[in-house]
Amino acid sequence: MPRDPSKAAHKPRMRVFHHKSRDGCRTCKDRRVKCDEGFPTCQRCRRGHRECVRGTVEILSCPGTRRDALKYAKIPAEDSATNDSTALDYFIHNTLPFMRQSYSSPVWDYLLQLLSDKVPVILTVAAAIGHQHRALGDRPPDGADYAAAIAYNAAIRAQSHQLFKSNGSDVVHALSCFLLIVLESLHGSIANLELHLRPCVYILKQEHDPNMQQEAADMLNHISSLIELYITSSMSFGPRELYSTSARKMLQTIWACRPSADEVVRIERSLVEDMVSRLDTWMPAAESGCDLPAGDPDTAVPTLDALQAQESALDAAAENYIETAQGDVKSRAYCGFAVARSLLFINAIRALSELPVSPAVTLATYQRTVDVCEEALAQLRLCKSKSPANASNAFSIGLGAIKVLFCVATRCKDFYLRRRALLVLETCPRREGIWTIEGARFHAMAIIKAEEGRALQRSPDRVLNNSPPEDWQVRHSEVVEVDGNSMMRLFWQSDRSRALTIEDIPISNQLISSPLDERAPTASSSEPRHSSTPL
């Protein structure tokens, strides 16, 4: 039909231009939702209790707008760190004592020497740690979060610049990577933490010059010791995390760099290798819902004998280590935590191997684990520190106490001992790696509530007599996201089948109390310091 010339031609409607921001977090990008670009945690991740991940790649990329470019241009990576004397003073007088309290090492004095020599990358990263640590306090100064975010970006850029310098020192590289690991621990990002672990391990493996001076080689060895301690105890201690390929490769690389470890560490390494090898057959079956591998009767007795021999060797090595330390409380505490981790590995190997172990033997190992942790924490408190362990920004490096006590509270079958483990947990430093007391307590109480609620429904008499049924316990747990909601996924094992069943329970924002708290007496009358919920 011909067009009517009397009518004006229709002008096409132009789309309204919307600026597309690329500064959102990776979590919102993966979920395909709009991010408000809040820093360090966006509003969506804060409301959904999700990890707000900003990768190093995004931070190192060019600013998205001219205003951003001007903002970042005012923060040179190497020069401005020396001007932030407040953050550096806070790092030296408040943060560094926590590091010294956790583990005795000549690295800390070497770090102070580099700060006095004004090594740019060390100054920048140390200032960023000081900013982040100060922001975690009970009464942080105004703008502390913003200052921590700016300092965090400057630290990433300084580290990237340092790694590409041809005349850099391997020791400075490794130490700056380790400091970034500490920074990411306080920042709470495990994804970015792993990004800094990889180049650090690479430096220890590939760039170690055989012609290096002995003093520098010894310092590299001390730094690698700290990194190994951190990976084993703080990041990848659980069976689920150790099953990941990246964590295993990093541990194996560090073990290759440090073949001459002390006997306590050597035994712990062998237990980790044994546990991880058994996970190769256990985890695929658990994830697919197939029957779990049954224990081999022919190898049960030799395996139990070998574990008993390792436990005896561990005791002897610990006694020898303590005698060599000559009363140093930090060394005694370090040895105690290593023994506690190893004891937990032994029980994990027994469980994964489906060995016919007496419940009394397993309970005795858990009991000793809690005793050792309690004594080691008491030794740690003997060390003079300006900041108390229960401060909101208190943290530790390489103890593993939070994760050990969390595992006892969620795996032990004795109702009283698991509550005692939670009570001892309250005496730990508030943060360790990506773990916090509050997060561990919340996760543990959610599992305890689900387990004891199920046990009460099936056999209330046995529960009140501290003798629960066989199929009441969660074999594995993890936090997942289902339809945008945070859920705790529980893997149950039925008494009629060896296969695991999966149950998702929602995670509420409030602390969870157990059904048994109103029906059964607790093991201790003392209340935890940081919890308003009875344990």
TrEMBL record:
PROSITE patterns listed in its UniProt record: ZN2_CY6_FUNGAL_1, ZN2_CY6_FUNGAL_2
Positions in coiled-coil regions: none
GO molecular function: DNA binding; DNA-binding transcription factor activity, RNA polymerase II-specific; zinc ion binding
Classification via Pfam families: Zn_clus
Key word ATP-binding present: no
Ranges of compositional bias, category Polar residues: 522-535
Record keywords, A-Z: DNA-binding, Metal-binding, Nucleus, Transcription, Transcription regulation, Zinc
Gene3D superfamilies for this protein: Zn(2)-C6 fungal-type DNA-binding domain (4.10.240.10)
Location of region: Disordered: 513-535
Entry-linked PANTHER family: ASPERCRYPTIN BIOSYNTHESIS CLUSTER-SPECIFIC TRANSCRIPTION REGULATOR ATNN-RELATED
The protein, known as: Zn(2)-C6 fungal-type domain-containing protein
Natural source organism: Dissoconium aciculare CBS 342.82
